[in-house]
Amino acid sequence: MGSLKIENIRKSFGQVDVLKGIDLEVKDGEFVIFVGPSGCGKSTLLRVIAGLEDATSGEILIDGKKVNNTPPAKRGIAMVFQTYALYPHLSVRDNMGLGLKQAGKPAEEIKERTRVASAMLSLDDYLERRPAELSGGQRQRVAIGRAIVREPQLFLFDEPLSNLDAALRVNTRLEIARLHRQLKATMIYVTHDQVEAMTLADKIVVMNKGRIEQVGSPMELYNAPQTLFVAGFIGSPQ
Ligand code: ADP
Ligand code: MG
User: Distance from the CA of 38 to the center of ligand 2, in angstroms?
Assistant: First the structure.
């Protein structure tokens, strides 16, 4: 289970209102993409959902339960960042297992979950290497593996492919689509890449200046953009 409901979420940093009343429902198992110009609040919204930032007001519900006061590690969420955020001094195996170790999981279980995740991501042969000995694409797969081993109900991806070259972006995008089908988890994914948005999403959320402009399937947004901004962003000829 991994449904999400966001009710009138606002977030201000000092005098600056970054999120200005966000309402959104994400169904269990859905793949939802957030798009919008740089600075419109996409990363802030993900961080609020993950619990890395507190909302100024509003409610966040996961599977119908309010989680505003639930610490990040207890929300059943794993987040994958653009910068991978791996520990350079740890092996791939230890990077992937660290969160489970900190949660007090037994060594055998960590080993088994790491085995399953590394097989899914074709990282079996790289488990004893350090991040510096991997390509950019492999590093990003380790970051995804570290999320998978925690068996979250909800994955949050913040522009996970933007540091990869074009060919690797396509491969990794297909891999994420496959993982979504395989794990049946809910995924929320930020990108500024229209192709990623149109191909991965069940539902696209177009954000602008701290608000949601429109929510719909890729075809709905393409065929019936409700504002010029959405039309321009999705690239409809209208
Ligand atoms: P996006 O991910 O859509 O590019 P962000 O959510 O990163 O946008 O940022 C939205 C706005 O919030 C920006 O103007 C940014 O400068 C501001 N912001 C984000 N985090 C902080 C912070 N910790 N303190 C102050 N301002 C912030
Ligand atoms: Mg961002």
Answer: 7
Greater confidence (238 vs 150) lies with: 150
CA of 112 to the centre of ligand 2 (A): 34
Q: What is the pTM of this model?
A: 0.93
Cα distances (angstroms) measured from residue 13 to each of 17, 26, 95, 157:
7, 26, 32, 23
How many angstroms separate the alpha carbon of residue 39 from the centre of ligand 1? 6
pLDDT value for 195: 87
User: In the structure, what pLDDT confidence band is assigned to residue 235 with cuts at 50, 70 and 90?
Assistant: low
Q: Please write the tens of the pLDDT for every residue from 40-62.
A: 999 999 999 999 999 999 999 99
Q: For residue 16, count other CB atoms closer than 10 A to its CB.
A: 8
Q: Are strands 186-190 and 31-35 parallel, antiparallel or unpaired?
A: parallel
If one residue of 44, 83, 159, 193 were mutated to test the ligand 1 pocket, choosing by the most ligand atoms within 8 A of its CB, it would be 44
Report the nearest-CA residue for atom 13 of ligand 1. Answer: 39
